[in-house]
From TrEMBL:
Keyword tags: Transferase
Family assignment from sequence similarity: Belongs to the sulfotransferase 1 family.
Name of this chain's protein: Sulfotransferase domain-containing protein
UniProt key word Transferase: yes
Database matches in Pfam families: Sulfotransfer_1 (PF00685)
Signal peptide stretch: none
Gene3D superfamilies in alphabetical order: P-loop containing nucleotide triphosphate hydrolases
Classification via InterPro entries: P-loop_NTPase (IPR027417), Sulfotransferase_dom (IPR000863)
Length: 368
């Protein structure tokens, strides 16, 4: 059973306990422990509370993958960095939670319709998150803070694992710790976190996506115990599963992928076409680093592009451990070819993609 841990001073912990009780009906008895992090210890106890108090080392020794840690305090960045470094990813920003429920926030949210001043209340405008990202100081690639996150947002089968592998090597951070895999409209949550430093959006010709997705699901079916793949050919997969998956899912914008493109371009996230990444990997990586204001030597970018080219990546990652290398070892990568749909995609499916997803295809130049 998952546990909730509060990493904060006793005084801040009290506020978090009250917030969880008020907003989520979470009782003190349901909180596993309050954690004293170095330099956060103080003399104020959690008033008349029976919640256990443990040290940070004790927390790390007992945490499971399902447990959740709420972090508050002046040492927030250091604490989050250390949790990430230890592979603890269910981390929540208690500071933001408290700020969003203080008196000013609560009042403005109920009183917004009656505001008569010249300037709209800033607390109701989330664009300040993106403004802070835009105006942030450039980062030296050798000094990436341990609490910073980077998001790879994509249509599935558009080079997500490939990009994550290159970012791991280039930035010196780990996937699933500081690099988030995010599909389509997941970006609404993943891109709004205050410690996200950069987002890159990967797209691909949907005709090639369908071919790659079909083969990937077929391999997955066999790994998961089916006697044979559930869908015998691409036509059956596309009409019998994929259209429904995309059209009925909030994650995939209910099939309106152009809405997703509107969202990411509005927020100034760089879009990288898979085809362009294959054609000139170094240039596209350099473009992403410029958007993120991360200073990376040209030689580093060239070396990463060479050592982790699509055809060399399985060999490069063969002896490594981690999320991306594990994906590669399970056969997640296929051929990675551009335009494979021309020989593998049935005409009926190609015609339906051109009609059903015409806005997406035209926007990205795949209709030419």
């Amino acid at each position: 059973m998952a546990g909730i841990y509060i990493l904060a001073t006793r005084q801040d912990a009290r506020k978090i306990v009250d917030w969880m009780s008020y907003e989520g009906q979470i009782s003190e008895a349901e909180i596993a422990a309050i954690v004293d992090y170095p330099d956060l210890v103080d003399d104020q106890g959690v008033h008349s509370s029976n919640i256990p108090v443990i040290g940070f080392k004790q927390l790390c020794s007992r945490l499971s993958a399902e447990d959740m840690v709420v972090v508050v305090g002046q040492q927030f960045k250091h604490a989050v960095s250390e949790l990430f470094a230890r592979g603890i990813n269910n981390v929540f920003d208690g500071q933001a939670a408290l700020a969003s429920h203080d008196l000013s926030h609560r009042f403005i949210h109920i009183a917004a319709p009656y505001h008569i001043g010249a300037n709209y209340p800033e607390l109701l405008d989330d664009s300040h998150v993106h403004l802070r990202r835009y105006t942030a100081e450039p980062l030296d690639v050798n000094r990436i803070p341990g609490h910073k996150l980077f998001v790879v947002n994509s249509v599935p089968k558009s080079g997500t694992a490939w990009m994550m592998a290159m970012l791991e090597r280039m930035l010196g951070v780990k996937a699933k710790q500081q690099i988030t895999l995010s599909h389509v409209m997941d970006i609404i949550q993943d891109g709004s976190k205050p410690n996200v430093h950069g987002v890159v959006v990967l797209v691909r010709d949907l005709r090639d996506v369908v071919v790659s997705w079909f083969h990937d699901l077929a391999r997955s079916d066999l790994r998961n115990g089916f006697c044979e793949p559930r869908y015998t050919d691409i036509t059956e997969f596309y009409f019998g599963h994929l259209i429904g998956l995309l059209s009925a899912s909030r994650r995939y914008a209910f099939g309106n992928l152009a809405d997703w493109l509107n969202l990411v371009t509005c927020n100034g996230f760089p879009i990288v076409r898979y085809e362009d990444l294959v054609r000139d990997t170094s240039y596209r990586l350099r473009k992403v680093m410029n958007f993120w204001k991360v200073r990376v030597p040209e030689q580093t970018i060239a070396d990463v592009a060479r050592r982790l080219s699509f055809d060399k990546m399985p060999q490069t990652l063969a002896t490594q451990q981690g999320y991306v290398s594990d994906l590669v070892k399970t056969g997640h990568l296929r051929k990675g070819l551009v335009g494979v749909w021309k020989t593998e995609l049935p005409p009926r499916v190609a015609e339906d993609i051109e009609r059903r997803f015409s806005a997406y295809q035209q926007w990205l130049g795949y209709d030419r």
